[in-house]
TrEMBL record:
Name of the protein in question: YccF domain-containing protein
PANTHER family (alphabetical): INNER MEMBRANE PROTEIN YCCF
Domain Inner membrane component residues, every copy: 4-54, 69-119
Entry-linked InterPro entries: Inner_membrane_protein (IPR052937), UCP028777 (IPR031308), YccF (IPR005185)
Gene source species: Arthrobacter glacialis
Amino acid sequence: MKTLLNIIWLVFGGFWLALSYFLAGIVCCILIITIPWGIASFRIAGYALWPFGRTVVDKPGGTGIASTLGNVIWILVAGIWIVISHITTAVAMAVTIIGIPLAIANIKMIPISLMPLGKEIVPTSQPFVRSYH
């Protein structure tokens, strides 16, 4: 079922969403000082491409002051706008019965889109196990 939902997600918006996060990552890496957000954008792009069967957890050891400060800056600069776009897209997707799981996936992406630093994306079967790749 996860694979079917991921394919439907990919066709009806996941590809473009992942592409936008990927392009944002490239811009952030070009600007050098924003490289941490660029790396986070690349992580989110992979998640946006294939979200079903994965979840977001805090990195082991918690977030440090640098991640917290970085997230505050991110919220002010881009996070709010990304969240608004996810909510708008989720409302549009929820109009149909088939779109309801896609809308839920869009809402599920809000926490990592709002505060990407100090987070990790893991399989839903292992939400407390850190992946090392």
